[in-house]
């Protein structure tokens, strides 16, 4: 082993921390498991040590440029950027992104400190490829996309998303780690080529590739491909060098259709487009397609058929208060008089229905609503029991998903992401439009609390245009399941 790869030995003290052992090392730095000297709390420390231009003196443990003169000031530029990026990462606050506590300089280089998470690397925690299902992967993917959307909105991208850099704390709680190659977004072109074979897009492994959110999107797509198939996709340079792309799209593999929806497979295929302009341009685009079920668009802008619900997954039953009427087409009329008569009848019928509907709403509010009972909700949605105490204490939504089956955990996640945006908590900026979008996705699956919150959005005009009829409709659906807040809202609705 050459001298520029020497790691710090155990028991070396760095300020208030003591090194326990080396966790890993790469071309730009070394990661250590350490402990706080004061209380023994374990942390992870990242050390800046770019092996191609610096080395460690084995006598005094100092890091110095390989070329003492360092005419291009390469090492010092990297050192400065490492410190700047550590400070930038310290400002991030997201439940699925590792937190940076602090940055400091010592031994001629720089370090930053992160919590010791534990957990298991994603590819090691995943079921075998022949057993993995969409119910397992989808909740994790949604959280990772939320994480990237948050990261990119702060003008940062990771540049090394891969299974080894995603830890799974619980069954469905991923945490993105190892930001050693992260950099700020500024439309810049990469002066330093970094990446992992199979997971890095073509713009990241060429000298003048323009990088951006689409770079992380490719890597996340490659990560999903690895989890589903057991192997990473072919290297981007290999795919580009051949006349025919060597990547076999997931949506064209029949053996996957029984366990994954075409929607999910097609969105991953689009993320893996060799040309950046053919991929999702933002994580939000990919996320919205997964949530809404709209078809992703290929490079030729042709729609791909989808099935938004995982194949084989049982439907989630909702209990609408009033059955939806079937559409009845009007009979063909040959006489103008009959047409006029039909129009008059339709106008009279529409007016009657409007009056009856208005009366019915008031009857329900004044007579039926007080008798709707909470027990109905408990019987039908036992797995979705979110107490007010949990909501008021701002319990992290990722903690709830382990208590319910994956399909229902996904709906909980949608609802609680809506709450994150609605209240502006857990590192999210308050955004009523996003909140309403998530509430609607969970409400349409029949989740009572989401139906109530969507009704509130319509009543107060938060993220949607004020519409008391829509508010009443959603309140009624929630009240029918015994939601007390919806019952009260119906009584008070003006």
Polypeptide structure, described:
- This protein has 494 residues and is an alpha+beta fold.
- The protein has 3 domains: 3-115, Phosphorylase Kinase, domain 1, CATH 3.30.200; 120-292, Transferase(Phosphotransferase), domain 1; 337-492, Serine Threonine Protein Phosphatase 5, Tetratricopeptide repeat.
- 40% of the residues lie in helices and 11% in strands.
- It has 16 helices and 13 strands.
- The protein has a 6-stranded antiparallel β-sheet, with helices on one face. Strands 9-11-12 form a 3-stranded antiparallel β-sheet. A two-stranded antiparallel sheet has the order 5-6.
Supply the key terms:
494 residues; alpha+beta; Phosphorylase Kinase, domain 1; Transferase(Phosphotransferase), domain 1; Serine Threonine Protein Phosphatase 5, Tetratricopeptide repeat; six-stranded antiparallel β-sheet; 13 strands
SSE map:
Layout: E1 13-14, E2 17-25, E3 29-36, E4 42-48, E5 54-56, E6 63-65, H1 74-90, E7 102-106, E8 109-115, E9 120-121, H2 122-125, H3 134-153, E10 156-157, E11 166-168, E12 174-176, E13 183-184, H4 213-229, H5 236-241, H6 262-271, H7 283-292, H8 336-368, H9 374-380, H10 388-392, H11 397-400, H12 406-423, H13 432-443, H14 448-460, H15 468-480, H16 484-492
Antiparallel strand pairs: 1-2, 2-3, 3-4, 4-8, 5-6, 7-8, 9-11, 10-13, 11-12
* Secondary structure category: alpha+beta
Which geometry do the CA atoms define? globular
User: What would the CATH topology of the largest domain be?
Assistant: Transferase(Phosphotransferase), domain 1
Looking at the overall shape, the CATH architecture of the largest domain is: Orthogonal Bundle
The CATH homologous superfamily of the largest domain corresponds to Transferase(Phosphotransferase) domain 1
Strand order of the largest sheet: 1-2-3-4-8-7
Which range does the strand content fall in? 5-15%
H-E order? EEEEEEHEEEHHEEEEHHHHHHHHHHHHH
């Amino acid at each position: 082993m050459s001298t520029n790869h020497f790691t710090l030995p155990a028991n070396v003290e760095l300020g208030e921390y003591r090194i326990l052992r080396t966790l890993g090392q790469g071309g730009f730095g070394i990661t250590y498991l350490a402990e706080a000297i004061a209380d023994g709390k374990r942390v992870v420390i990242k050390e800046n040590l770019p092996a191609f231009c610096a080395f460690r003196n084995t006598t005094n443990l100092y890091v110095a440029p390989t070329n003492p003169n360092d005419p291009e000031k390469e090492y010092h530029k990297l050192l400065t950027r490492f410190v700047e990026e550590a400070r930038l990462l310290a400002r991030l606050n997201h439940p699925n992104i590792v937190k940076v506590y602090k940055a400091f300089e010592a031994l001629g280089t720089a370090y930053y400190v992160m919590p010791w998470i534990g957990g298991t690397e994603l590819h090691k925690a995943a079921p075998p490829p022949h057993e993995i299902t969409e119910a397992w992967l989808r909740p994790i993917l949604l959280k990772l996309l939320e994480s990237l959307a948050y990261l990119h909105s702060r003008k940062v991208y990771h540049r090394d998303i891969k299974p080894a850099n995603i830890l799974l704390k619980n069954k469905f709680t991923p945490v993105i780690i190892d930001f050693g190659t992260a950099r700020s977004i500024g439309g810049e072109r990469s002066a330093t080529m970094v990446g992992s074979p199979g997971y890095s897009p073509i713009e990241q492994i060429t000298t003048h590739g323009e990088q951006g959110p689409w770079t992380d999107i490719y890597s996340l797509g490659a990560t999903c491909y690895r989890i589903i198939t057991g192997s990473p996709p072919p290297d981007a340079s290999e795919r580009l060098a051949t006349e025919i792309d060597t990547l076999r799209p997931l949506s064209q593999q029949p053996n996957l259709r029984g366990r994954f929806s075409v929607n999910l497979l097609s969105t991953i295929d689009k993320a893996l487009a060799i040309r950046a302009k053919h991929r999702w341009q933002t994580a939000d685009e990919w996320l919205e397609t997964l949530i809404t079920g709209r078809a992703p668009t290929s490079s030729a802008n042709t729609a791909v058929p989808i099935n938004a619900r995982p194949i084989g997954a049982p439907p989630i039953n909702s209990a609408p208060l009033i059955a939806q009427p079937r559409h009845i087409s009007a009979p063909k009329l040959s006489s103008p008089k009959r047409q006029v008569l039909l129009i008059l009848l339709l106008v009279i019928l529409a007016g009657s229905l409007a009056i009856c509907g208005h009366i019915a709403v008031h009857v329900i509010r004044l007579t039926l609503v007080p008798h709707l009972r909470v027990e109905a909700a408990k019987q039908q949605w036992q797995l979705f029991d979110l107490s007010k105490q949990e909501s008021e204490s701002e319990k992290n939504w990722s903690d709830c998903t382990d208590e319910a089956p994956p399909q229902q955990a996904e709906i909980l996640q949608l609802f609680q992401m809506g709450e994150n945006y609605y209240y502006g908590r857990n590192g999210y900026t308050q955004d009523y439009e996003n909140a309403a979008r998530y509430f609607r996705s969970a409400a349409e699956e029949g989740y009572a609390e989401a139906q109530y919150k969507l009704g509130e959005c319509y009543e107060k005009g938060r993220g949607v245009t004020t519409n008391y009829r829509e508010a009443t409709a959603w309140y009624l659906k929630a009240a029918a399941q015994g939601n007390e807040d919806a019952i009260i809202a119906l009584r008070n609705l003006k």
